[in-house]
Task: inverse folding
């Protein structure tokens, strides 16, 4: 089974900050990685797929990078609507989510 | 507009059974793989099960293999999850989601979720 490990678990930031979340896979997954945003009581929302492709309708302040086992999600300038929990997900072999990173207000 | 509407959640005793449904609309249902993802209270997302657009190939997480069965009725645009031998650790909100291809990849649309509580 492929394990996904995100860091940090919690991130405190202010509006306007540049934020980076890291996701590591236990084995190479090429670029078969997605990022999701989830707000309390809501379903997850797809942000990024194939490691760096932006889903339609997602603001360009979100970007993804990486390949193999190391990936990052970057929010270039944090907006009030971006305070949420973010999950990475591999789909190279079945599907596995990371444990999540909560972005909270500093 | 793509819509996914789960139903069938509720309170069930340990060892009991429950069947979840997910009614889909707004896309050609049979052309896409579908999946179930769950989230225990206050916890992260856990992939549970998936099946291809035609329904001929199914996938299960080790935690539910042998107890849960995923299926679909493409004539009714409905996805199902039959859950047997339920345990307390199966308590979660269960989401159905649509994959972007008939054989999987990422999940681009999600339902609002249905809560399953396993307790005596």
Result:
């Amino acid at each position: 089974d492929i394990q996904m490990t995100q860091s940090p678990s919690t991130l405190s930031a202010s509006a306007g900050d540049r934020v980076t979340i890291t996701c590591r896979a236990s084995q190479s997954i090429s670029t078969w990685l997605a990022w999701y945003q989830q707000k309390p009581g809501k379903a997850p929302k797809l942000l990024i797929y194939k490691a760096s492709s932006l889903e339609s309708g997602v603001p360009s302040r979100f970007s993804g990078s990486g390949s193999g086992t190391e990936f990052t999600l970057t929010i270039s300038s944090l907006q009030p609507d971006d305070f949420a929990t973010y999950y990475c997900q591999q789909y190279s072999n079945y599907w596995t989510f990371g444990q999540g990173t909560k972005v909270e207000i500093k | 507009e793509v819509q996914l509407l789960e139903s069938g959640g509720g309170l069930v005793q340990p060892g009991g059974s429950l069947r979840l449904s997910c009614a889909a609309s707004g896309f050609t249902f049979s052309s896409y793989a579908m999946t179930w993802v769950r989230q225990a209270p206050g916890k992260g997302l856990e992939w549970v099960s998936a099946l291809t657009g035609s329904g001929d190939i199914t996938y299960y997480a080790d935690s539910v293999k042998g107890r849960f069965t995923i299926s679909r009725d493409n004539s009714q645009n409905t996805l199902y999850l039959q859950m047997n031998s339920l345990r307390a650790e199966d308590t979660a909100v269960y989401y159905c989601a649509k994959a972007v291809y008939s054989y999987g990849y990422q999940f681009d649309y999600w339902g609002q979720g249905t809560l399953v509580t396993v307790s005596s």
